[in-house]
């Protein structure tokens, strides 16, 4: 009876180690790279998530600016002019993961 318990525990430990290694390898090779500029631009936006820009919220607006699908920062109505200038300056000097700079206008 003790042998059966130790066998079950041993099998579970081996299974846990194998699955842990599989998850570690999968996380390394299946990692989705996220552009860090999205988080930075989101922090510069007002954070109202009002949708006045035509996006689902400030994070979506930031992603659109970074990806280049939206190029006009002033489409964010609640943002102040100094915040818009700060976003433009950041986008003009910070390249993305591919090394390219996304052109945006105020």
Key attributes of the depicted protein:
single chain, 106 residues, mainly alpha, 3-methyladenine DNA Glycosylase II, Chain A, domain 3, 2 domains, 4 helices, elongated
Overview of the molecule:
- The protein has helices spanning about 1-30, 35-45, 60-65, 80-95.
- The chain is an all-alpha fold.
- It has two domains: about 1-30; about 35-95, Orthogonal Bundle (3-methyladenine DNA Glycosylase II, Chain A, domain 3), CATH 1.10.15.
- Helix 2 packs across helix 3.
- The protein is elongated, with a radius of gyration of 23 Å.
CATH architecture field of the largest domain: Orthogonal Bundle
Main CATH class of the largest domain: Mainly Alpha
Radius of gyration: 23 Å
Distance between the termini: 75 Å
Strand content: under 5%
The CATH H-level homologous superfamily of the largest domain: Electron transport complex subunit B, putative Fe-S cluster
Number of domains: 2
Instruction: Please tally the β strands and state the result.
Output: 0
| Sheet having the most strands | none
CATH level 3 topology of the largest domain: 3-methyladenine DNA Glycosylase II, Chain A, domain 3
DSSP helix count? 4
Overall mean pLDDT score?
A: 93
Helix content: 55-70%
Please tell me what the overall shape is.
elongated
| Alpha-beta classification | mainly alpha
Order of helices and strands: HHHH
Uncertain stretches of 5 or more adjacent residues: none
